[in-house]
Amino acid sequence: MPKSAVVLLNRPSLEAPPHVEGAAEFELLDVDAPHVRVLDLGVTRGDGVFETISFGAGHPQALAAHLARLAKSARALDLPEPDADAWERAVLAAASAIDPAPEAYVKTVMTRGLEGDGRPTGWAYASAAPDHSRARSEGIRVVLLDRGYRHDVAKTSPWLLAGSKTLSYAVNRAVLREAARRDADDVVFVSSDGYLLEGSTSNLLLRFGDTLVTPGLDQGILAGTTQGDLFAFARSQGLETEYARLETRKLAEADAAWLVSSVRHAAPIRRVDGVDRAVDTDFTAAVNSHLIGRTS
Ligand code: PLP
To answer: Which helix (H) or strand (E) holds 89?
Structure first.
């Protein structure tokens, strides 16, 4: 079996015609074969949406939440609504076409397709997950970077698509290069008016005593599936959970801090802007074994 696989959907949305009338729902293709047209708006404009779903021991994790978020992002971009059932089958087909791995992921991409064509392009790509064990156990170093938007940008300027998972992630990659230049592994975005937001591809979680806190989702950040699952886990462990507006100083004041996301799961933050901070090793291990062990 291959290490990676791609499934191309014939009809990513029921609101648009299929690519090939009467063809199968999706096709399993060789990853090295060409799949996308050079004029696809996903390629030329980053005009589309995506999700990355982690798999633990062959089980998709938070799949329903990921597909709901794909639909929400599509709505924000005025794309046709993804056919959730077709996408679910495509995700599972892609995952089962690769070598079984303890941890894997499937990335789903839906673009606007060719200009004027009206048919979105959609595919699911499956692969074994990279090894994130060091980030999980030793922690990560972050720098605070100004995102340049106020915390209320989603309300004042919805056309900026803050909080949607669009294919326009060049900025999310540029900040990682900036982090590397500053001898760090990742970033925590800060609003132009001084509030903690999220990581480049993750949500920020802080622990104060028995309370887990994350920045409120009305601040132009992505509603994380991992953060959602972790809040449920924390409550099952007797902790309180809270959404809040957090001034930047709160990161240094917290008893522990993490960046949490699908695939990497919970990476404890051990240094902020060159200053070491405490890591909660036991809770981090408990959280990661919960996240890795999820079967739905
Ligand atoms: N915030 C951003 C900007 C992201 O891109 C991601 C995931 O890629 C997250 C947060 C975390 O979301 P999830 O936990 O659903 O992976």
So the answer is: helix 84-96
